[in-house]
Design a protein that fits this description.
Length: 79
């Protein structure tokens, strides 16, 4: 009975270790989404949305000139 209990305990610990390992893997693989967007939403917002938010909201004129150059300059200024 003692050896059976130890085996069950070891198998349970192995299962727990596998489960904990999968959770750790989930945390590592989802670091870009979870850590940046949830833990540091401002940093993630600035880094991931830099092209849209930083240029269009903080510097709308620069973004307008850079991102819309092909559309605006060619179609409106030179139709």
């Amino acid at each position: 009975t003692i050896s059976h209990t130890r085996r069950s305990h070891l198998s349970n610990m192995s299962f727990f270790e596998k489960f904990a390992g999968s959770v750790a893997s989930f945390a590592n693989d989802s670091a870009k989404i979870v850590v940046k967007e949830v833990v540091n939403p401002t940093v993630s917002f600035a880094n991931d949305s830099a092209k849209i938010i930083v240029k269009e909201v903080v510097n709308p004129t620069v973004s307008f000139a850079n991102d819309s150059a092909k559309t605006i300059a060619q179609e409106v200024i030179n139709p």
